[in-house]
Specification:
The protein has 393 residues and is α/β, with parallel strands linked by helices. Helix content is 30%, strand content 18%. The protein folds into three domains: 218 residues, Rossmann fold, CATH 3.40.50; 56 residues, no CATH class; 57 residues, no CATH class. The strands form three sheets. A six-stranded mixed beta sheet has the order 6-7-8-3-9-10, with helices on both faces. Strands 2-1-4-5 form a four-stranded antiparallel beta sheet, with helices on one face. The termini are far apart.
């Protein structure tokens, strides 16, 4: 069923200052939105015996920035692939602007105004930056074999496309690189190029898969500003991200996936404190706010004090070393248990081999030099220390 948008109803709205509620009713997994642009129902995808995606119901709000978060392996990129035609689901139906996308090829989905970028950038390295931009424009007359033979047919259109590309490259601060090969760009510049190229289609929905992954911190703020500008220009943004501070900073709505399912939805401030979200990331409930720096520090201190935790060791997981640097000093290590291996912090800090036995004194009552090796020297029949160490096993 087609859902009329607010634009089709003749409503004029400032998207950057719109404070109306996004959800049409109570927030929660699969809640209805006031003005959705994408609707997905019972979408599933399995690989062997693993259900990578099992989304019962999901709506993406129009003219908003929506963050799709979750631990690694939650199914976020797979869901992107299914929605944009890069993969085929086992079941389900989904629509974009009221039009069903089931069985629609990815290039047709892009022409409809639903474009995406990739976690690993897909720029054409042997083409120049400008040539990459021109490729992004749709419905080019010169792409047809017969018309390509006559420049008078497509020459004017290519000039308009080039002018549009120049405007975007200047906005993304890549105009000085337009004649350089795309392979010469840095990782962050490739992200910018891919985002700029996606705008050549004049999309309604832009889907960004981890736009900050591998980007130099110097370009992070620039990318954030460009994402917010997409919203100000009337576009809808759906992006995958692991940086909680970034999510809280720019997202209007957050959708959380874990093990292929939608486990939480809502405004960033509420979702960051949701026990289901914290459990999905940490595996155990802690009363902390994942989007707040102080909350992360409190959690770090709690885990450092937990002798079964690996936080504070070389394998510190999601709690980074710079957070731990400001925490309280290490608690005293507990004695190893007599029976069985020691887990968590103690296993990371203590060797697994048993402690060497104490050296026995020689006939003179003095400890033998074998103490240096952790073995015991036994006196021989003459009363002198024997050089053969006692077996400590």
């Amino acid at each position: 069923m087609s859902i009329p948008s607010e634009e089709s109803r003749g409503e004029t709205i400032d998207y950057m200052t719109d404070t109306r509620p996004i959800a049409a009713a109570e927030t929660g997994p699969g809640c209805k939105k006031r003005d959705p642009i994408v609707v997905a129902e019972n979408v599933t995808r399995s690989f062997g015996g693993i259900n990578a995606v099992d989304v019962e119901y999901l709506e993406i709000p129009r003219h908003k920035i929506t963050a799709l978060i979750g631990p690694n392996g939650a199914g976020k990129t797979t869901l992107f692939n299914l929605l944009t035609g890069f993969d085929t689901p086992n079941s389900g139906k989904w629509q974009f602007e009221g039009n069903s996308l089931a069985g629609v090829s990815s290039y047709k989905v892009a022409r409809m105004g639903m474009v995406r970028t990739f976690q690993l950038t897909k720029v054409m390295g042997k083409l120049t930056v400008m040539e990459n931009m021109r490729l992004g424009a749709s419905n080019q007359s010169g792409e047809r074999l017969f018309k390509a033979l006559f420049k008078g047919i497509w020459g004017g259109q290519e000039k308009r496309i080039t002018d549009e590309a120049n405007v975007l490259l200047e906005k993304f601060k890549l105009d000085a690189k337009k004649d350089d090969y795309a392979a010469s760009l840095s990782g962050g510049q490739r992200k910018l190029l891919e985002m700029a190229r996606s705008l050549m289609v004049r999309p309604k929905l832009v889907m960004l898969d981890e736009p900050m992954a591998g980007v130099n911190p110097a370009l992070t703020q620039s990318l954030l500003d460009h994402i917010k500008n997409l919203k100000s220009e009337g576009m809808t943004v759906l992006f995958v991200e692991h940086d909680m501070h970034m999510v809280r900073h720019i997202a209007d709505w957050v959708v959380v996936m874990a093990e292929g399912k939608i486990v939480a939805e809502g405004p960033p401030g509420e979702v960051m404190k949701n026990p289901a979200v914290i459990d999905a990331y940490l595996g155990a409930h802690h009363d902390v706010d994942l989007g707040d720096a102080e909350g992360i520090k409190e959690l770090a201190a709690e885990l450092v004090a937990d002798e079964d935790s690996i936080v504070g060791t070389d394998n510190a997981g999601i709690i980074s070393a710079d957070v731990l640097a400001t925490e309280a000093p290490e608690p005293e290590a507990a004695e190893p248990e007599a029976n069985g291996p020691v887990r968590g912090r103690r296993s990371a800090e203590q060797p697994s081999s048993p402690e060497p036995s104490s050296p026995e004194p020689s006939s003179t009552g003095q400890p033998d030099s074998a103490e240096k090796t952790g073995s015991t020297a036994l006196p021989d029949s003459t009363g002198q220390p024997n050089s053969t160490p006692k077996d400590t096993e």
